[in-house]
Amino acid sequence: MSERSPAPGGLELVEALVNTVDLETGADALDTGEGRARLGLTEEDVPAARELRESLRVTLLAHAGHPPHRPVTPLGELLAAAPLVVTVDPADGSAALAPAGEGSLTARVAAAVAQALVAGTWSRFKACEAADCHWAYYDRSPAGRGRWCSMQVCGARAKMRRYRAKES
Predict the structure, then answer these.
(1) Gyration radius of the chain's alpha carbons
(2) Which of 15, 90, 91, 139 could form a disulfide with 146 if both were Cys (CB 3.0 to 4.6 A apart)?
């Protein structure tokens, strides 16, 4: 739904996962082979991916100051099981967390969250406040107070609803 540029670094993967479902229409990209392939998933991976997606959405809603959209497994519990390793670049000695082995989706997300924490970008990663959207977006506003994934769609709808409510 968003016209915003993708989230920075590894958060682009997290954004892609959260935005696999359109809450307004119910269309879920994880229901299609193409949608699963974009995230490196098989059909068997879908239930866990959906659980992770909704836990991420609750966390991103919290970043924006909104309550959970539904009860979910806490994100910390899901990420705690992610196999990560510390990698060290021999050229410059820089270290990073990376998924162990082939990297499950949960491990790739955990590594992206860790990278975002270090980079200071995690708290600006939010979910749209529109109840029929909750699309993930990276808030690039100067004050970090963005509310909608798209000012032209979700923001305009919210402002029109407020205007109409005042007129009645």
Answers:
(1) 17
(2) 139
For 79-93, b/e burial (b = at least 16 CB within 10 A) is: beebebeeeeeeeee
CA dihedral angle for residue 63, residue 65, residue 68, residue 74, rounded to 10 degrees: 40
Q: How far apart are the first and last CA of the chain?
A: 29
**pLDDT tens per residue, range 111-128:** 999 999 999 999 999 999
Two structure tokens written together for 35:
């949608």
Query: Which uninterrupted H or E stretch holds 16?
Result: helix 11-18
Q: Is the dihedral of CA 73, 74, 80, 86 positive or negative?
A: positive
Q: What is residue 28's DSSP assignment?
A: B
User: Considering the chain, what is the average pLDDT of its residues?
Assistant: 88
Tell me the C-alpha distance between 129 and 61, whole Å. 7
Q: What is the mean pLDDT of residues 57-78?
A: 93
Instruction: Answer whether residue 53 shows pLDDT above 60.
Output: yes
